[in-house]
Design goal:
The complex is a heterodimer of chains A (275) and B (314). With 275 residues, chain A is of the alpha/beta class. Chain A folds into two domains: 3-91 and 182-272, Rossmann fold (3-Layer(aba) Sandwich), CATH 3.40.50.300; 103-167, no CATH class. Chain A has helices spanning 3-12, 54-62, 84-90, 107-114, 123-128, 131-151, 166-179, 196-213, 224-230, 248-253, 255-262, 269-272, and strands spanning 16-25, 28-38, 43-47, 69-74, 77-78, 92-94, 184-188, 216-220, 233-238, 241-246. Chain A is globular and about 65 Å long. Chain B has 314 residues and is an all-alpha fold. Chain B starts with a helix and ends in a 15-residue tail after the last helix. The chains are: A alpha/beta (275), B mainly alpha (314). The A-B interface holds A 62-64, 83-85, 87-89, 93-94, 96, 100-105, 108-109, 112-114, 116-117, 119-121, 126-127, 129, 141-142, 145, 149, 154-155, 157-158, 176-177, 179-180 and B 154, 157-159, 162-163, 165-166, 168-170, 172-181, 233, 308-311, 314.
Chain lengths: 275, 314
């Protein structure tokens, strides 16, 4: 490809493109030739029953697991199998289904870890703790604080992350991911363990964060009504395969989806899904 | 009670405690410290006994500039070696890394036991003395300890410290936050080796002789005990542990053979009663509140100073 053509291809390429991505663990095919394209600015949802391969797909994208076949492209450039910290540097940040916070650090420091790549300081100044160094440190603390404010847990800044409730921890993880200044935010079941009120707030929070931080969001969630309301487009996985793709309305009517959720033709998933 | 000789040993113990502490800041339990300590000691013993140019003018003591040069060379050698070895052994996690570092110490011991140049089991004798009195060594070791403590404090107070703490808590989350964990682990391992190597140089001159037994598995366990006893959450823990556990057997001499029992009890009860070590962050915060602000800041205790904007008004 010539230089100009490549620039053009990158300009028109989707933010994230997954082609025929597969991952097998021994005899088990966790992700089976999945194609997806996430466009800039959208909230893209991944639905599917337990064990459908959603989290594995996240792990393949974010560099925790190496795919056995297929490719991942970021703005048109192949990044298949890149290590996690490089993926983060490219502009993707994620949260974890089972919450992975830094338990010995305060909430503020958890977010400051997210700022890692943006907090480099001249080594000599850092060693001597110069005024310039301290000023910059204050700026970084302020930035971290602002993120805690924006997810609504600023009053807990100095608490150890262990002292937080489940919903607060999920928010803290989102703040830490945002500290990486991502273009694409990957949320792995952010509503898990939340009560209905918190789930409702979460959907508002995700929308607001997308606007304020100019984000594209890729989200895994079990709670079907939330996904139908929140997402611009949805893909449905079952047994590692992508069985449906489209707008919430299209996906809801898709016979393959209905069968995956209910076993045979019946009610749409919204009514049949577990609460 | 504590004479200059014991004081030197205590200070060297504190330095070795810090060497074990450094990899622990990113959750890596390395027992390689005595290996690099032995490399530093052997290097100093060889250079000072075999290189006439370092000995200085006849009649006067061993020049300090030569001692300094040996320390620099030991630091360099250990750093280069640790960088190479680290690239290999740090691929291992948890107990497997620890076992690999034990193997490293053992390899170094067996090699120096069988080499002609290191004097085999007898070792190297008559290492020249830069200081006529033990107080000289005590002062020198104290300067070195202050320097290393300062380095550890700056490390903890800056970006590397936060990155290493994140790696210690959760490697996967740290990597996903953009931290190149291999590099930071390697840095901690290299710094640990460097501190051990430099300590070995001072120890070799102080002890006047060097043999392979000084860097064996027993030394691994002893230095580990410094950190287990003192605590590994801040650099103050291993320093306290190194000072206390080196002094204890000597201070207990008056009680005769009972001292071994008392020492054993301390080693046993220490972790049982203080699972995080004697020096814990809450303890430091409590002490920190009573200290003047500049000293507190230097020691890295408690809040760094002014309160955070927004933190007081939620």
């Amino acid at each position: 490809m010539s230089g100009q053509a490549q620039v053009q291809a990158q300009a028109t390429a989707p933010l994230l493109a997954i082609e025929a991505l597969s991952c097998r663990f021994g005899g088990l095919v966790a992700v089976d030739r999945v194609d997806l394209q996430v466009r800039e600015g959208e909230i893209f949802g991944l639905l599917g029953p337990n064990g459908a391969g959603k989290t594995t797909l996240f792990n393949l994208i974010s560099g925790l697991t190496r795919p056995t076949a297929g490719s991942v492209r970021w703005k048109g450039t192949a990044i298949t199998g890149a290590p996690s910290h490089r993926v983060a540097a490219l502009g993707m940040a994620r949260t974890f289904q089972n919450l992975r916070l830094f338990s010995s650090l305060s909430c503020l420091d958890n977010v400051r870890v997210g700022l890692h790549r943006h907090s480099r300081q001249p080594k000599l100044q850092a060693l001597l703790g110069s005024r310039a160094f301290q000023r910059r440190e204050r700026e970084l603390r302020d930035q971290a604080m602002a993120l805690l404010v924006s997810v609504g847990i600023a009053s807990l800044a100095e608490r150890p992350s262990e002292a937080l409730s489940y919903g607060q921890r999920r928010r803290l993880e989102i703040a830490r991911a945002l500290a990486c200044r991502p273009e694409l935010l990957l949320l792995d079941e952010p509503a898990a363990g939340m009560n209905p009120g918190e789930k409702q707030e979460l959907s508002g929070l995700i929308r607001r964060l997308r606007r304020e931080h100019r984000l594209t969001v890729l989200i895994i969630e079990h709670h079907v009504p939330l996904m139908m309301e929140l997402c611009d487009r949805l893909a449905v996985l079952n047994f590692g395969r992508r069985i449906a793709l489209g707008s919430p309305a299209e996906v809801r009517r898709d016979p393959a989806v209905i069968e995956a959720y209910l076993g045979s033709a019946g009610q749409p998933p919204e009514a049949g899904a577990p609460p | 009670m504590i004479d200059a000789t014991l004081l030197v040993q205590m200070l060297l113990g504190a330095l070795l405690g810090l060497s074990v502490y450094l990899p622990l800041t990113c959750g890596q339990l390395s027992l390689a410290t005595p290996g690099f300590y032995a490399i530093g000691g052997t290097l100093a013993a060889l250079l000072s006994t075999r290189v006439p140019a370092l000995a200085g003018a006849a009649g006067s003591g061993y020049p300090l500039s030569s001692l300094l040069l040996e320390m620099l060379l030991a630091a360099l050698l250990c750093a280069v070696l640790a960088n190479g070895i680290g690239a290999l052994v740090l691929r291992l996690r948890g107990i497997y890394l620890t076992i690999a570092t034990i193997a490293l110490v053992e390899i170094l011991r067996v090699v120096s036991l069988n080499l002609e140049i290191t004097g085999g089991a007898v070792g190297i004798f008559a290492i020249p003395q830069p200081f006529a009195e033990p107080w000289g060594y005590a002062l020198w070791a104290l300067l070195l300890l202050v320097l290393v403590c300062w380095g550890c404090q700056r490390l903890a107070a800056t970006r590397p410290g936060l990155a290493m703490a994140a790696i210690r808590d959760d490697e996967i989350a740290a990597a996903s936050s953009g931290i190149a964990i291999e590099g930071w682990k390697r840095l901690a391992f290299v710094l640990s080796a460097l501190v051990a190597g430099v300590t070995g140089v001072v120890a070799a001159h102080f002890l006047n002789a060097w043999n392979p037994r000084l860097g064996n598995f027993d030394a691994s366990i002893t230095t580990l005990a410094f950190v287990v006893f003192g605590g590994s959450r801040t650099w103050i823990g291993p320093v306290a542990g190194g000072l206390a556990l080196t002094a204890l057997p000597e201070l207990l001499r008056p009680v005769g053979d009972l001292r071994l029992i008392v020492f054993g009890l301390v080693i046993l009860l220490g972790p049982a009663l203080f699972p995080q070590g004697v020096v814990t962050p809450p303890l430091l915060a409590a002490v920190g509140r009573r200290l003047p602000a500049p000293l507190r800041r230097w020691l890295g205790l408690g809040p760094a100073g002014e309160s955070l904007p927004g933190a007081s008004a939620p």
